[in-house]
Amino acid sequence: MATILELREVPHWSYSALNTYLNMCSLKYAFQYVYKTEQERTSASLPFGKAFHTAATTHAKNVMQGKRMTLPELHEVFAEWFKVECSASSNLVFKNGESINSLIEQARFMLDALLARWIDWDNIVSVAHAFKVNVPGLNKPLIGEYDMVIKEGEGTTIVDWKTSAQRWSESKADKDFQATAFSFAYLMEADHDTIPAFRFDVVTKTKNPSLENHYTQRTKDDLHRFSLLALAIERAVKKEVFLPAETSFICSDCQFANACKEWHRESAVKHVCMAA
Ligand code: SF4
Fold first, then answer.
1. C-alpha of residue 243 to centroid of ligand 1, in Å
2. Is 245 close to ligand 1, i.e. is its CB under 6 Å away?
3. pLDDT score recorded for residue 207
4. Is the CB of residue 141 below 6 angstroms from any atom belonging to ligand 1?
5. What residues form DSSP beta bridges with 92?
């Protein structure tokens, strides 16, 4: 199976792209995926999340081989990757009082929580499992990567690791678009005939980090709705329906805030408005 990096080399849809259009802001989607506008800023939480993912992936791969990593080993993996990701990020910005070193220190406590609450010792099927599936009617395949696939009882569960500034509410996983997209993808893969369970392992980025397992399950009806949403998004993108979501929760952290401020002054947009 190809890696996610290889799959990204050809035109595709990803959960992130669909989610950006649908649940964040269609104009942000356009800046990021269509116009390829240079990012004005990168929140340090992005490289932090990537490095945490790498550490969790490394740990899971070791578990599959019957090895247990210690906290210092895991922390070293995190620190190394976090520095790499930070230096690859343009215009990195930190929240008040944060720095590369303070975030590396914070990660130690979060990784400690991950190790202390790890429950998948002998049931891991695959780690960093890339997928590519066709969504009926879409012009491009849907690609992605399951962080971990495990066996639980008779069934299969897809696990996704998240870092979060706060604890998730009880209902958040049930509404999450990623769980829907990934459940859809899993069912579409050749040898699968059952919708898997989905589990978010959420580690809080707080003073006393905790790890909580949030389970959710999608139905066939949910997946049908997902495929129609994906089709509608593709059609809207083709027609260049890109509008600022003026009160989006993402505005305060948007990498294209200045470009957005200029959006209505662009001649092409003016032309469209005047012609209407
Ligand atoms: S600042 Fe807000 S409205 Fe503008 S592109 Fe970003 S997310 Fe969209």
1. 9
2. yes
3. 81
4. no
5. 42
Residues near 263 by beta carbon (within 8 Å), at least 6 away in sequence: 27, 244, 269
Domain spans, the chain: 1-32+120-244, 39-118
- How far is 233 from 227, CA to CA, in rounded Å? 10
Residue 263, ligand 1, Cβ within 6 A:
no
Measured from the CA of 251, which atom of ligand 1 is nearest? 2
Give pLDDT < 70 ranges for the chain.
267-276
Those residues with Cβ within 8 angstroms of residue 113's Cβ, 6 or more apart along the chain or in another chain: 203, 204, 209, 210, 211
Question: What was the pLDDT predicted at 267?
Answer: 60
Q: Which two tokens stand for residue 270?
A: 């003016």
CB 243 within 8 A of CB 26: yes
What local confidence, expressed as pLDDT, does residue 224 receive?
Answer: 97
Q: What is the pLDDT of residue 193?
A: 86
Ligand 1: does its nearest atom lie under 6 Å from the Cβ of 188? no
Q: Who's near 179: CB < 8 A, 6+ residues apart?
A: 158, 160, 173, 198, 200, 216, 218
Which ligand 1 atom is the nearest neighbour of the CA of 257? Answer: 1
Q: Is the CB of 30 under 6 A from ligand 1?
A: no
